[in-house]
Design brief:
- Helix content is 52%, strand content 14%.
- With 281 residues, the chain is an alpha+beta fold.
- It has 2 domains: 156 residues, 2-Layer Sandwich (Beta-Lactamase); 105 residues, Winged helix-like DNA-binding domain superfamily/Winged helix DNA-binding domain (Arc Repressor Mutant, subunit A).
- The chain has a 6-stranded antiparallel β-sheet, with helices on both faces.
- Helix 7 crosses helix 8.
- The chain is globular, with a radius of gyration of 20 Å.
- One of its GO terms (molecular function) is DNA binding.
């Protein structure tokens, strides 16, 4: 059973790494698996030029991946060697491999940290929000694959226990279309003067996220959701202000309120936090 678990999960990881590389054009993708002793080991990779990072063992708090383990939140650096937000136990293997910009996202099933998904480039460039979003979506898909694999193994071990048939997971491109449609619907509702039509459009927006909605302990106002929808489309504060017909400072105020409510430090974190609670698709 344990060997089957490793085979199933390794297949899912290999598929995720290849898919992420192909969808983003990022040259390096890696996965670090959490071990029973609390360490993490980078045991699958695509695109590495050297063996410097192969099977690298990482403790919580060390480097980019270790910080992800400790905080259970995404971490990114545009220049690993000079980054002040991480520790530097692994500067030598990173330098040997020639990596500069790296992002890492946790993969968590239930409350168990299963590993860390990495993407990296061999040049000192900052990866944009689109790449960060694709890495995050790939991590979420991998979480679902792990969960489905676990459910199927439990069903095999106990044939009398019913198991739900796994549903098809939407690709990153399909999710992008859903999100863009949601954001544009909110912008359209914002421009409609008829109160009844505006309410109907807002109901449609709510229905788009209802399949993944979880119990919300944080309540966001309609205006705060409008601002987040603009941010999710990649709009600047000025562009969001023009879209919503309000001042840029007002947009900043709404965004500060959202980030405070969601415990986010960046616009990107706020969008992802809103998605986790089901406020955005």
């Amino acid at each position: 059973m344990e060997q089957q678990r490793h085979r199933d999960d390794e297949d899912a990881i290999r598929s995720a790494l290849s898919s992420l590389k192909n969808s983003t054009g990022i040259p390096v993708t890696m996965f670090g698996s959490c071990q029973s002793d609390g360490r993490m080991v980078i045991n699958q990779w695509v695109g590495l030029r050297t063996p410097a990072l192969n099977n690298l063992s990482i403790e919580a708090g060390q480097g980019v991946g270790g910080r992800v383990m400790a905080t259970r939140r995404p971490v990114g650096v545009s220049d690993y060697i000079r980054a002040k937000s991480i520790s530097h136990e692994f500067d030598r293997p990173i330098r040997d491999e020639g990596l500069h910009s790296i992002v890492a996202v946790p993969v968590i099933v239930g409350r168990e940290m299963r590993g860390v998904l990495y993407a990296g480039v061999h040049s000192p460039v900052r990866m944009g929000d689109k790449v960060l979003e694709e890495v995050t979506m790939t991590a979420r898909t991998l979480e679902q694959d792990f969960a489905v694999n676990g459910a199927l193994r439990r069903a095999d071990a106990n044939p009398r226990e019913p198991v739900s048939k796994p549903v098809r997971t939407m690709s990153g491109a399909e999710w992008e279309q859903v999100r863009a449609t949601h954001s544009r619907l909110r912008m359209l509702a914002n421009r409609v003067e008829d109160e009844e039509i505006r309410r109907d459009l807002e109901v449609l927006c709510d229905q788009m996220v209802s399949p993944v909605r979880v119990k919300q302990t944080t309540k966001l106002s309609a205006r705060e959701l409008d601002v987040l929808s603009c941010v999710a489309l990649g709009h600047t504060n000025v562009e969001a202000a023009e879209e919503m017909g309000i001042g840029a400072e007002t947009v900043k105020s709404y965004l500060r309120s959202v980030m405070r409510k969601l415990g986010a430090h960046t616009r990107y974190e706020a969008v992802n936090a809103a998605r986790r609670i089901g406020a955005l698709p």
